[in-house]
Write a structure and sequence with these properties.
The protein contains twelve helices and five strands.
Length: 258
């Protein structure tokens, strides 16, 4: 299985943002809006690596939209150790992004950067903010440091605070079917999209869902070329994976609706 260091299907928007950065007019607060699972966080990590690796060895491959595995900024980011990147995401055991996480983010924002490079705050799925954490975030971005950039992701159809939206420059993201197929094939290093059971193929709503589903089937020695949705649901119920498996738990309603 290949690493997902290659960005697929978002070339146009990526080159727009890189051009804005090169011209020194990149907005300080960017909102990436699109369907869940199409790669908004992945896009953010690639864009941040492009900027932070510009003067490093093994810098970002802008032509092929690919991160180099040996790049220092990538390795630090991968281990959540990069001094210029702060990531905010909902903790697995919590219902919302907590205000304490935003306070930690504000500390990061206010601390001076020892390497004089830009600092990036990535908030994954701002719909996970509750009222308190939203208000804390709004206060922090009222007068943003010119060298601090926010990249916020938002799933289409989920709620977002109107005041927060008004502070952002919004960019819409989408994926064509051909790009989705390419992402899945690239992830598994083989063309498997057209081999997947016809009973499931029409139910994929994004590449992330498809990849997780195929992984789940493989882990349970289930044939993804033949399995039916009815058999899948029976196995989920019998194994009680709706309570034990994170992917199944998060998507059980989708399977039941099908």
């Amino acid at each position: 299985m290949r690493n997902i260091n290659k960005l697929i299907g978002h070339n146009y928007l990526f080159y727009i943002l890189t051009e804005l950065y090169q011209k020194n007019v990149l907005p300080n607060i960017i909102l990436l809006k699109g369907e869940k699972g199409i790669g908004k966080f992945l896009f953010s990590s690639h864009f941040v690596n492009y900027i932070l690796s510009l003067n490093e060895e093994y810098k970002y491959d802008l032509k092929n939209l690919e991160i180099n595995n040996q790049n220092r900024s990538y390795l630090l980011f991968k281990n959540n150790l990069h001094p210029n990147i702060f990531i905010v995401t909902k903790k697995s055991d919590k219902k919302y992004i907590e205000v304490s996480q935003i306070r930690e983010m504000i500390k990061f924002q206010n601390n001076s950067s020892f390497n004089n490079k830009s600092k990036f705050i990535i908030i994954d799925n701002i719909s996970d903010l509750n009222l308190n954490s939203t208000n804390a975030l709004l206060k922090s971005i009222e007068e943003p440091n010119t060298n601090v950039f926010y990249i916020l992701t938002h799933n289409t159809g989920s709620l977002i605070h109107d005041t927060l939206r008004s502070r952002c420059i919004e960019f819409k993201m989408f994926l064509s079917l051909s790009s989705q197929k390419l992402i899945i094939s690239n992830y598994f290093s083989e063309d498997i999209y057209d081999l997947i059971s016809g009973d499931l193929i029409n139910y994929y709503n994004n590449p992330s869902f498809a990849i997780s589903l195929i992984n789940y089937l493989n882990e349970n020695s289930l044939d993804y070329t033949k399995i039916t949705i009815e058999k899948l649901i029976c196995l989920i119920i019998q194994s009680k994976d709706y309570a034990k498996n994170k992917f199944i738990n998060e998507n059980i309603n989708i399977f039941i609706e099908l």
